[in-house]
């Protein structure tokens, strides 16, 4: 598939998607959102891919937000549709993907860019990264899940302050808040992220997809996460990965998981 706004590469069962609009600091226009959706969908269905890394091109920005030029003249209905469609196509889509998605935040992650990073399963930042939700400076609120996911990650009080002041925090503060798990230099960012992906790939892909589902259930209205856990725990017992994992342990050898 040919994309105009993103790059997709794969290496050793790890796919890397790079948002590639460096002259616009990788801002998310609707075409980029659609392309990201297609790329995530196709990688989810690609048996060779075990982990997906999402990053931005260049040394300055991960994604500097939704493309302000694109929605500057929108009506109420168009604004609502923009948020709804984006959430369904990309942000909720990534969060609920069966394969692990790691954001490698290589610079500014602002507005829709931080929302994109927060929809990934976890985040690693380079030490030059800056993060914030500055929508109120534009007379807006976050519309791609930011009012929900930021408090889940950093707590309500910190989310309120970040959204109300619109200020950026640096990578060290983001780590202190629990918004990112690790901070490394920009030169190390992709290799370090791949080293975490490699640790994940030692484990059962099937169990990992069920773990993602069970963890996410904690954040879904009307869903009992403990019940989701029980059901998915049970399902693991019917899988080849479970037989392989337990047999390999008892035979004192490394597991060879097939994801079945
Ligand atoms: N939407 C559309 N275009 C954007 C953008 C966005 N969110 N963020 C940056 N750009 C564009 C700029 O318009 C500029 O384009 P131009 O060269 O055609 O004029 C280009 O990217 C470079 O940005 P610039 O502002 O010149 O870089 P800077 O280093 O001076 O500032 C930022 C960097 C990130 C502080 C600044 O670009 C910014 O505040 N961006 C908007 C962030 C934001 O509010 N995001 C939330 C949107 S919901």
From TrEMBL:
<dbReference type="Pfam" id="PF00378">
    <property type="entry name" value="ECH_1"/>
</dbReference>
<comment type="similarity">
    <text>Belongs to the enoyl-CoA hydratase/isomerase family.</text>
</comment>
<keyword id="KW-0456">Lyase</keyword>
<dbReference type="InterPro" id="IPR029045">
    <property type="entry name" value="ClpP/crotonase-like_dom_sf"/>
</dbReference>
<dbReference type="InterPro" id="IPR018376">
    <property type="entry name" value="Enoyl-CoA_hyd/isom_CS"/>
</dbReference>
<dbReference type="GO" id="GO:0006635">
    <property type="term" value="P:fatty acid beta-oxidation"/>
</dbReference>
<dbReference type="InterPro" id="IPR001753">
    <property type="entry name" value="Enoyl-CoA_hydra/iso"/>
</dbReference>
<dbReference type="GO" id="GO:0016836">
    <property type="term" value="F:hydro-lyase activity"/>
</dbReference>
<protein>
    <submittedName>
        <fullName>Enoyl-CoA hydratase</fullName>
    </submittedName>
</protein>
């Amino acid at each position: 598939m040919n994309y105009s706004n993103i790059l997709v590469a794969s290496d050793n069962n790890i796919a890397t998607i790079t948002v590639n609009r460096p002259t616009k600091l990788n801002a998310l226009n609707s075409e980029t959102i659609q392309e990201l959706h297609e790329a995530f969908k196709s990688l989810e269905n690609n048996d060779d891919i075990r982990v997906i890394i999402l990053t931005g091109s260049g040394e300055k920005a991960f994604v500097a937000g939704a493309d302000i030029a694109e929605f500057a003249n929108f009506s109420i209905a168009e604004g609502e549709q923009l948020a709804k469609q984006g959430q369904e196509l990309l942000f909720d889509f990534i969060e609920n993907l069966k394969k692990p998605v790691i954001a490698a935040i290589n610079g500014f992650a602002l507005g829709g860019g931080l929302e994109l990073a927060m929809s990934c399963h976890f985040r690693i930042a380079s030490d030059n990264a800056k993060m914030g939700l500055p929508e109120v400076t534009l007379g807006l609120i976050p519309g791609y899940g930011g009012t929900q996911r930021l408090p889940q990650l950093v707590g309500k009080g910190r989310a309120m302050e970040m959204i109300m002041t619109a200020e950026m925090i640096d990578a060290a503060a983001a780590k202190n808040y629990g918004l990112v798990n690790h901070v490394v230099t920009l030169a190390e960012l992709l290799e370090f992220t791949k080293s975490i992906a490699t640790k994940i790939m030692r484990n059962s892909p099937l169990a990992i997809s069920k773990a993602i589902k069970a963890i996410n259930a904690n954040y879904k209205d009307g869903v009992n996460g403990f019940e989701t856990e029980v059901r998915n725990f049970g399902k693991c017992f019917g899988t080849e990965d479970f037989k392989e994992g337990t047999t390999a342990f008892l035979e004192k050898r490394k597991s060879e998981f097939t994801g079945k």
